[in-house]
Amino acid sequence: MLGRRILHVITRFIDGGADENTALTCNHQALSGNEVWLIHGRDFSERMLEMLEPEVERICLPTLIRNISPLRDAAALMALVRLFREIRPYVVHTHTSKAGILGRLASLAVPEAHVVHGVHILAFLAASPMVRLVYTVLERLAARYTSAFISVSPMMRDLCLEHGIGARDKHFVVLSGMDLDCFSQAEPAPDLVELRRRIGEGAVIAGHMAAFEKRKRHRKLIKAVAPVLMENTHIHLALAGDGPELLALKDLVVELGLERQVHFLGFRKDPEQFLAACDICLFASSREGLPRTVVQYAAAGKPILATDLPGIDMVVREGGNGHIVAADDFAAFRMRFEELALNASKRGRLARYNDRIDLSEWQAVEMVRRIEKIYG
Question: Taking the mean position of all CA atoms in its chain, how far away is CA 142?
Fold first, then answer.
């Protein structure tokens, strides 16, 4: 599908999986000869702007915000209507809940457009009952004007159907694409090479890469591995990311007396180099579409310890390239962590198993090919 006008709408354009997914889709579509626009809301990061190819036209809409705000939401809706009428897109592709609802309602102004909604996560399901009810009703309303839903995992598709959002024949699953080759070829990050040198002989670095948000469950992860760290000073935890929970987590580490073994490394622009320097990779989230970081862990060839989520076994094979523990069983998480941290030969065996896992469906090129097939 070349030379078509494709308009993407996303609420926030920050350092997250949905945002990277959207940026890669825009880039590949624009470089393939399509006219591509990206409309995003008030909140964005410079890194995500730098990620966009120059061929992608970007429009910032300050009234488009994450939280419910009747006045701003009405203003954002009217602004989207004006933009849609001006651009006359062939495809309107919305991402995330707020942009998805407003963008699909605004698409009524361009009835000839194909309207597609990307389901990256249904975050409102974890909100208060009233907010959940409001969003569910609005999602069902917007579904009436949706040609196709594209979920990043079977779990997201099934959750939509379970909550009466869209007909089954309109739902498709396209795994969240990435440029994975760099993860298998990366050199270790210099700061972590220096950390390993300081730790000395037998150093073990466990890495965790996620935004510091409550659903990522850093607090439970740190408490789970703390006894192992206290008994083994050569084992260190490296946390890559940023977010609202950062200061509280730093206080927790001080309270536990682990300042020398738990390292807060900030948001990384070099995730492939960060992972290349790790001996074990950890995942502890309570809910995700399908975590891109876990796919990146496997692409980097690392042993993985993860809490269970629907679909996690698409990437982590129990006893193969890692271990999956029950979602809330952090006692089992601690046990498996200790087992991996103290057994280098087992880590090597699990790491080598990653060569047997086919990650081709997560390549960005494959993602865009499937999306464009759904566009029609």
Answer: 24
Task: Look at the block and give the residue holding tokens 């935890």.
Answer: 237
Cα 32 from Cα 168, distance rounded (Å): 30
* Cα three-residue angle 263-266-269, rounded to 5 degrees: 125
| The amino acid at 49 | L
The neighbouring-strand residues paired with 307 are 325
What pairs with residue 263 in β-bridges?
Answer: 238
Query: Which residues in 109-131 are b (16+ Cβ under 10 Å) and which e?
Result: bbeebbbbbbbbbbebeeeeeee
CA nearest to 100, candidates 153, 67, 146, 160: 146
Distance of alpha carbon 244 from alpha carbon 213, whole angstroms? 6
Q: What is the CA radius of gyration of the chain?
A: 21
CB 271 within 8 A of CB 295: no
CA–CA distance, 92 with 185 (Å, rounded to integer): 36
Chain centroid offset of residue 229 CA = 28
Which pLDDT tens digit goes with each residue over 159-186? 999 999 999 999 999 998 888 989 988 9
Give whole-number Cα distances, 32 to 134, 323, 353, 366, 373, in Å: 39, 40, 35, 13, 14
CB 289 within 8 A of CB 17: yes
CB atoms within 10 A of CB 81: 17
Rounded Cα distance, 103 and 97, in Å: 10
Predicted confidence (pLDDT) per residue in 218-273, tens digit: 999 999 999 999 999 999 999 999 999 999 999 999 999 999 999 999 999 899 99
pTM score, whole prediction: 0.83
